[in-house]
Amino acid sequence: MKIGISACLAGDSVRYDGRHKKDDILMELLKGHEIVKICPEMESGFTVPRDTIELTDGKAVTKNGKDVSDELSEGSGRCLEMIKDCDFVILKSRSPSCGYGFVYDGSFSGKLIDGNGVFAKMCIGKGIRVFTELDLDRIEKELK
Ligand code: SF4
What we know:
Elements: E1 2-6, H1 24-29, E2 34-38, H2 40-43, E3 53-56, E4 59-62, H3 69-82, E5 88-91, E6 102-104, E7 112-114, H4 118-125, E8 130-132, H5 136-143
Parallel strand pairs: 1-2, 1-5, 5-8
Antiparallel strand pairs: 3-4, 6-7
Helix pairs in contact: 3-4
The protein binds iron/sulfur cluster.
């Protein structure tokens, strides 16, 4: 199978804090499959490290109040092109770009609300199935 995956889950140090969130169990599951790593925020031209971003009133805004919606939308669109023929994608939960099902509420206080990140929304809109690293059981079934 061909699977799109958030680059930080695959071990790339692309997060806002310069770290990754490599998920060893997930990567073990994916062995033998083709993976396509994508990072909407890097594709948007953002630096590492960078200010954290949260979604508020339909916009993507940095902790310092900069509206980066347009950049993030463009970068996410480029990532969408990269994964368009994947069987499904596995995205990093809670991210304003990759988060699926719930995201931070825009107050930069760690509070989660129902919602999807900018890139996750685009995937859903194109009918691409989205999982997160929290869906290991379901992903395992998909891979069988
Ligand atoms: S945009 Fe997605 S892939 Fe990039 S660091 Fe954030 S969660 Fe990871």
